[in-house]
Design the sequence.
């Protein structure tokens, strides 16, 4: 009856700027929540976060698309994947270095849909995670923010995914939604601190993982 969730993501899933050696990354906290539920103790979490990872281009390791087979589809017992990818693609719009850095909303949505479709072909439920705020960070640009908001709206409403983890809503400053809630900001305005990772994990509806 055991089954697994893969968390496919970048440095935010890898737990950048969480307290070292304390298991305060959002996948760790999700695993602890599952373990506390008698009906979900059999569900494990496999962290496939890579710092700097992108959906479309291979820079910090293989792209999310190209590592999907290895890190998600071929893992034992996987029944769910939570996809939190795209911030590093969008961040390049603030500092274009190559022609392929100039990504569009449509390209990013198409790539995320390919991930969801591949998961579905293998009997895996795909859960889309909205992209967290980047206001005040080096990843921010007005155009990039337009892409982020459009992609988040698509994740919430397109029906591509079997469920949504609304990390954007869980971590944003209600008075300034393009920025992190100061309570959750690590200080670089790009990565959460421990409380932010806790808020992310706490926002996930555990009924998504009921058999």
Sequence:
């Amino acid at each position: 009856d055991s089954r697994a969730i893969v968390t496919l993501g970048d440095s935010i899933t890898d737990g950048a700027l969480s307290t070292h050696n304390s298991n305060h990354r959002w996948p760790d906290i999700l695993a602890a929540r599952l373990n506390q539920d008698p009906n979900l103790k059999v569900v494990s979490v496999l962290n496939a976060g890579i710092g700097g990872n992108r959906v479309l281009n291979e820079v910090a390791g293989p792209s999310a698309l190209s590592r999907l087979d290895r890190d998600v589809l071929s893992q034992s017992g996987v029944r769910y994947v939570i996809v939190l990818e795209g911030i590093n693609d969008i961040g390049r719009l603030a500092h274009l270095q190559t022609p392929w850095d100039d990504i569009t909303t449509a390209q990013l949505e198409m790539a995320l849909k390919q991930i969801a479709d591949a998961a579905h072909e293998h009997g895996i439920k795909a859960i889309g995670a909205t992209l967290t705020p980047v206001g005040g960070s080096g990843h921010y640009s007005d155009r990039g923010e337009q892409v982020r908001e459009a992609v988040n709206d698509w994740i919430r409403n397109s029906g591509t995914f079997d469920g949504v983890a609304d990390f954007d809503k869980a971590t944003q400053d209600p008075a300034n939604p393009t920025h992190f809630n100061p309570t959750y900001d690590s200080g670089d305005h790009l990565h959460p601190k421990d409380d932010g990772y806790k808020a992310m994990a706490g926002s996930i509806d555990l009924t998504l993982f009921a058999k």
Notes: The mean pLDDT is 96.
